[in-house]
What we know:
The protein is an alpha+beta fold.
Amino acid sequence: MSVTVSDDDWNAIYAYFHASFTAADNSGIHHVMDLQEEAWRRVQRIAADNGQSVPDPTRTAGLVSPPSDRQSGPLMGEQNLREEGFRGFLPFSALASSGIPDEPGVYVVLRRTGNEPAFRQSNPGGRFKGQDPTVTADLLQKRWVANAPVVYIGKATRLLRRLRDFRDFGAGKPVGHWGGRLIWQLADADELVVAWKVTPSEEPREAERSLLDRFRSRYGSLPFANLQT
């Protein structure tokens, strides 16, 4: 028996799936994402079986693109990173007593809230060699990647030293950690968390490039504070 679904019904389905996908993605609940993606594929099959073309919800005011239009690629939420061996997930203020290994590896900075960010007019980071790390609000807004928990990906030959320098730069000390400086212009920078992973069988540069490629595959750009590969 064929059942015709109205455009209004399709738009309601879009709205539901988009909201649930976004919530699961931000929370890193990957098994829920898998179930939702399978459910969405079933909805699409039902539409095809009924000979219906799926309407574009963007023609209805207030709706955003459906889940089928989202970028593909491996998830990079907190739970996913934990499962891959990342450790820490601590604010920079807690790094002094966190037992970071002084070994080669990669690290990520995450923003746990999915809210739209606010930006500081001035970057509190250190003025290394007299350089002001502040950038314009327009650039910050342009760089922002919506719904992406990871805001920066970095590498280190010595994780302990690198992350301490990163922390000290954010505290205003004139140390040479220019990379990732945009994170300190986030109004909630103090709430960001950092996680790290030792890479004994892989060069940190290659591990970093792999993470950046994964991020770009999913979100279509580099992380917010990664200005170059």
